[in-house]
Structures are given as structure tokens and as C-alpha cells.
């Protein structure tokens, strides 16, 4: 373990200063060989994390034939964006229109923001130049239990499927819980009142692909993942009231399962960029999450596809502002992000130079950045006054990521 002054010297030796995302070409080149490039963020409300990920994603698509973008968002809402960028949704007038109408469940600011508009507009224009499979935009998260079931019902109604009643049975089972996951979780965990059999029957029906309309090339993918969401969400909400760590594992395993289906749809040679929080894309084995028996997307994808086929890029900031809420469900507000705490990776990067910089971890240098140090993580709920006690994840940075981008001072997202 390096002493603090030695660590700062090594950051100075290996970090590359940049002032614009256009200067990140060496990082793009290093990541381009991977099947999946995981793009993190240290918060869900920082402008620069979105704008830099957008530029990296554009280059990976344009220069290295990446096939899709998958994000930490709900499948049904992101699928509407997917339809829009592929020119299949004339009901939406613009990128802003589809984002506003699709992302209306809290915390909507994660995707209904001005920063993401740039990417959605670009994808829409880029796809108009493509004759083969167009670049897609998909959601990997597990939360959309009701929305996914409703999407299945709507589609089965549209094609007059004989399997419609099975989907209606599943929805009716969940009706008493009034779209409140905690009500369902308590009922299923403590009173044995669950909807597992209805969900499994629906999942098995969809997997048999009896109800897919041949004129819609993505209908099978859409139906299949909505059914998987419904199944895994039931399991997630059932578990979350009794075992928080295991519910986390269910969620991240679901994300990897959804990613597998998206990748299969695009073919064996498909490549994708994955946008999620650092806590999902940075290998859990390089943090204290491993001590709690927790896994995440970064670990699971490395295990599933091989270390060389996954390239994880973490993000961090020393200070600035962020969009977050004081409590779950509260309105979003702009909050101050304090200076990185003493002994953290954020402080070390800042002390090596108070400017934007990135580190590429290689066989030559990764042993130098294995100190166990706090690495800031801000969620949708945040209290800057208490962040020292719960917002730093002990991390071995060069094992958690393949590269790290440090933005010295950041600003909050701009909401639509």
C-alpha cells in the first residue's frame, strides 16, 4: 500500500489531463475491443457524467460499431425511447417529447433531463443513415413490475392473443397492492400472500413465443424482457423487506440477464455500452460489498463474458453540485457536493491536480492504485451534511475499474 504522497506522485505520473471529451480518444481506443463497455457515474444527478458518457458512446458506435445502449432505467419507458430513435414512434415529436412522456415515475430526472437529449437526438439521426439493424436504447432495471405487466396486456390485446387471460390474471393478483411495492413485499414475505404462480405461468407462456406478431421484429424481445421483469420484480419486492443485500443481488442479476437477451437479439458479434451507477458497474469484489455477500453487474459480466470482454470506466468528482432528493419520493433539488473527504480517492485525484483527468489501468501500473480508500457514491437520496458516514465505498480503484475519469468540479443535471 502506497503512502499518500507516493500515491499522489503516481497519479501525477499516469493521469492524463483533459479539458474536453474530444480528448478522450486513448480511453476510447482502450475500451473499443470489449464486448461491453460499462460507463459509470458517482451520482444520478451530475451533468458532466452524462455529457462525457454521451461522447464516449457516440464514438464507440460510430468508430467501433457498437450496437446498443443499455441503461439503469425501466424497460417499458426505455423501450419507448428505443422506438423513437429507430423511427418507429411517430406519436413523439422530439427527443424531449419522448423523454418527458416516458419517464414520469420518480426519480424521473435520471432520464428526463437536458443532458440525455443530446444522445437521443444523435441516435435518432444516426439511425436514419443505417440500413441494417439500427442502434437501440434499452432499460435494464427491475422496478417496472406494473408497467411491464400492462405492456404485456396491451400487446396481447392488440394481437388478439388467446393468452391474454393469463396476463390479466397476473395483473388482477397485484391489484390489491395499489402499485405500492412495499405493500406487496410485506404481504408476500410475512403473510404468504403472493402472486408467484400467476407470474410464473405468464413467464412460461411468453417464453414459448406463442403470441408474437411476425411484423414486429422486436416484439419477442420486448415481450420476453417484460415477462422477465415481472418475474424478477416479484422476487425483488418479496425479498426487499427481509434481506436488503439479497434484493440488491436479485436486481443486479436481473440486469445481467436482460443484457444477455439484448445481446442475443443483436447477434454474437454485438457490442453495447452500459450506463449505470459506479456501484453497479465497478467490480463488487474490489469493494466492501464482497464482505456482505453482494454481487453487481461489473462482477457478473466479467465472470460471464471474461475480463477482456468487459471494460469498466468509473467516474468521480471532487466537488460541485448535484440533483437529488432529501427523502425517497421527495422533489428533486440542487444540492452542494462537498469537497472529497480526507483519505478518499477524490481527494487524492484533486491533490494530484485540480483539473479534469483520467487514469488508464494497465498491467504496468494497476498495482500502484490498489490502496483501499473511500470512493464517493451519491444516490437519488442524498444528505451532503452526513455524506462522510455513508457515501464512501472502500475501493481498490484499479481492480474495481479498467479506467477512471475524474471531473474536479461538477454541476447538477438540468431537468426537462
From TrEMBL:
Query: Which BP terms from GO are recorded?
Result: response to antibiotic
Q: Which segments does the entry list as coiled coil?
A: none
Q: Which InterPro entries match?
A: Emycin_Estase, Hydrolase/PRTase-associated, UCP036794_erythomycin
| Gene3D superfamilies, per database record | EreA-like (biosynthetic domain), EreA-like, domain 2
CDD domains on file: Ere-like
Protein name, UniProt field = Erythromycin esterase family protein
Amino acid at each position: 500500500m502506497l503512502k499518500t504522497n507516493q500515491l499522489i506522485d503516481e497519479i501525477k505520473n499516469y493521469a492524463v489531463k483533459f479539458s474536453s471529451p474530444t480528448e478522450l480518444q486513448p480511453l476510447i481506443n482502450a475500451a473499443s475491443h470489449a464486448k461491453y463497455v460499462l460507463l459509470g457515474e458517482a451520482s444520478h444527478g451530475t451533468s458532466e457524467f452524462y455529457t462525457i458518457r454521451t461522447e464516449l458512446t457516440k464514438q464507440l458506435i460510430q468508430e467501433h460499431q457498437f450496437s446498443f445502449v443499455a441503461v439503469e432505467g425501466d424497460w417499458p419507458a426505455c423501450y419507448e425511447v428505443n422506438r423513437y430513435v429507430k423511427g418507429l414512434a411517430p406519436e413523439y415529436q422530439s427527443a424531449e417529447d419522448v423523454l418527458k412522456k416516458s419517464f414520469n415515475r420518480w426519480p424521473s430526472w435520471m432520464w428526463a433531463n437536458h443532458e440525455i437529449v443530446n444522445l437521443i437526438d444523435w441516435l435518432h439521426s444516426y439511425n436514419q443513415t443505417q440500413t441494417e439493424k439500427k442502434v437501440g436504447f434499452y432499460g435494464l432495471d427491475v422496478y417496472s413490475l406494473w408497467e411491464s405487466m400492462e405492456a404485456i396486456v396491451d400487446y396481447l390485446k392488440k394481437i388478439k392473443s388467446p393468452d391474454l387471460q393469463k396476463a390479466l390474471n397476473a395483473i388482477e393478483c397485484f391489484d390489491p397492492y395499489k402499485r405500492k411495492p412495499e405493500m406487496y413485499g410485506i404481504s408476500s414475505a410475512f403473510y404468504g400472500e403472493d402472486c408467484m404462480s400467476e407470474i410464473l405461468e405468464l413467464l412460461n407462456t411468453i417464453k414459448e413465443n406463442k403470441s408474437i406478431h411476425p411484423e414486429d421484429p422486436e416484439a419477442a424481445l420486448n415481450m420476453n424482457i417484460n415477462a422477465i421483469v415481472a418475474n424478477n420484480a416479484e422476487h425483488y419486492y418479496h425479498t426487499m423487506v427481509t434481506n436488503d443485500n439479497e434484493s440488491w443481488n436479485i436486481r443486479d442479476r436481473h440486469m445481467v440477464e436482460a443484457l444477455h437477451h439484448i445481446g442475443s437479439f443483436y447477434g454474437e458479434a454485438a457490442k453495447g455500452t452500459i450506463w449505470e451507477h459506479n456501484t453497479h458497474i465497478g467490480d463488487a469484489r474490489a469493494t466492501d460489498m464482497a464482505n456482505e455477500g453482494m454481487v453487481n453487474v461489473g462482477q457478473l459480466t466479467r465472470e460471464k463474458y471474461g475480463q477482456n470482454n468487459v471494460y469498466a470506466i468509473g467516474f468521480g468528482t471532487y466537488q460541485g453540485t448535484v440533483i437529488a432528493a432529501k427523502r425517497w419520493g421527495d422533489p428533486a433539488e440542487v444540492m452542494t457536493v462537498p469537497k472529497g473527504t480526507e483519505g478518499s480517492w477524490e481527494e487524492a485525484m484533486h491533490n494530484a491536480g485540480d483539473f479534469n483527468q483520467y487514469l488508464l489501468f494497465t498491467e504496468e501500473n494497476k498495482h500502484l492504485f490498489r490502496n483501499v480508500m473511500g470512493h464517493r457514491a451519491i444516490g437519488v437520496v442524498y444528505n451532503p451534511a452526513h455524506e462522510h458516514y455513508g457515501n464512501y465505498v472502500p475501493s481498490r480503484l484499479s481492480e474495481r475499474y479498467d479506467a477512471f475519469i475524474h471531473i474536479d468540479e461538477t454541476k447538477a443535471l438540468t431537468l426537462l
